[in-house]
Design brief:
The complex is a heterodimer of chains A (114) and B (113).
Chain A lengths: L3 E4 L2 E5 L4 E7 L4 E9 L6 E7 L4 E4 L2 E6 L4 E6 L8 E9 L8 E2 L3 E6 L1
Parallel strand pairs in A: 2-11
Antiparallel strand pairs in A: 1-3, 3-8, 4-5, 4-9, 6-7, 7-8, 9-10, 9-11
Chain B lengths: L4 E3 L2 E4 L5 E6 L6 E7 L5 E8 L14 E5 L5 E5 L8 E8 L7 E2 L3 E5 L1
Parallel strand pairs in B: 2-10
Antiparallel strand pairs in B: 1-3, 3-7, 4-5, 4-8, 6-7, 8-9, 8-10
Chain lengths: 114, 113
C-alpha cells in the first residue's frame, strides 16, 4: 500500500521567515496530495491541495509543489505568523486506495516564534 | 449542519467496557471515513462507507472494532471490551463523493483507564 514519509517532525521558525515541509510517497499511482493543518484539540483542516496534473499551486502565503518523477511534494509557507503554529499533515491518495481514503504522513509540528 | 459533527467530544471509559462514538457527516455527503489518531502520530484509516455499498473495513485493527452507517447518513463506531491501547482521537470525515475533498470533524477523544 501507499507509504507517506514526512519531514521534519518538528520545525521552529521566527515570525516572518519561511517554512518548508517535505513529503515523499511510494505509490506512483497517487494522484491527489492535500495538506491539512491541525490546531490543538481540533480536527484537521484542509489548507491546500494539488493534483498530479499540476506542478505547483499557490494560495496567498501558502504554496505546494509536486515532483511526480521523484515522488515528493512540499508545502511552503512564506511570511510566517504565530497563528501558523500547528501540526501540518501531508497526505496522498491513489486509485488503489480504499474508497479513495487518504494515506497520511506522521505530521510536522510547526512553531512560529514572535 | 455546517460541518462534520462528532459526539462525544471526550470520553473516559474503564478497560473492558464498550464505547460508541457517533458521526454526523455534512449534509449530502455520500462518503464517510473513520480515522484514528494516537498521541503524536499520524492518521490511521479505519473504515469507509460510500452510499449504500458494503463498507470497506480493511483498516479496522481487530474484531473488537465495528461501525455502522444508518440510512446513508449518521455513523456509529463501536469499540468492544476497550483496552488502554485504544486510547486515541477518533476522527470522522465525509466527502461529497469518491475522489472529492475530505472534510474532518473535531474528533472524539477516547481515554481508556
Amino acid at each position: 500500500g501507499e507509504n507517506v514519509e514526512q519531514h521534519p517532525s518538528t520545525l521552529s521558525v521566527q515570525e516572518g521567515d519561511s517554512a518548508v515541509i517535505k513529503c515523499t510517497y511510494s505509490d506512483s499511482a497517487s494522484n491527489y496530495f492535500p495538506w491539512y493543518k491541525q490546531e490543538l484539540g481540533k480536527g484537521p483542516q484542509l489548507i491546500i491541495d494539488i493534483r498530479s496534473n499540476v506542478g505547483e499551486k499557490k494560495d496567498q502565503r501558502i504554496a505546494v509543489t509536486l515532483n511526480k518523477t521523484a515522488k515528493h511534494f512540499s508545502l511552503h509557507i512564506t511570511e510566517t505568523q504565530p497563528e501558523d503554529s500547528a501540526v501540518y499533515f501531508c497526505a496522498a491518495r491513489s486509485n488503489s486506495n480504499s474508497g479513495y481514503a487518504l494515506n497520511f504522513g506522521k505530521g510536522t509540528s510547526l512553531l512560529v516564534t514572535p | 449542519g455546517a460541518g462534520v459533527s462528532q459526539s462525544p467530544s471526550n470520553k473516559v471509559t474503564e478497560k473492558g467496557k464498550d464505547v460508541e462514538l457517533r458521526c454526523d457527516p455534512i449534509s449530502g455527503h455520500t462518503a464517510l471515513y473513520w480515522y484514528r489518531q494516537s498521541l503524536g502520530q499520524g492518521l490511521e484509516f479505519l473504515i469507509y462507507f460510500q452510499g449504500n455499498s458494503a463498507p470497506d473495513k480493511s483498516g479496522l485493527p481487530s474484531d473488537r472494532f465495528s461501525a455502522e452507517r444508518t440510512g446513508g447518513s449518521v455513523s456509529t463506531l463501536t469499540i468492544q471490551r476497550t483496552q488502554q491501547e485504544d486510547s486515541a482521537v477518533y476522527l470522522c470525515a465525509s466527502s461529497p463523493g469518491v475522489g472529492n475533498t475530505i472534510y474532518f470533524g473535531e474528533g472524539s477523544w477516547l481515554t481508556v483507564v
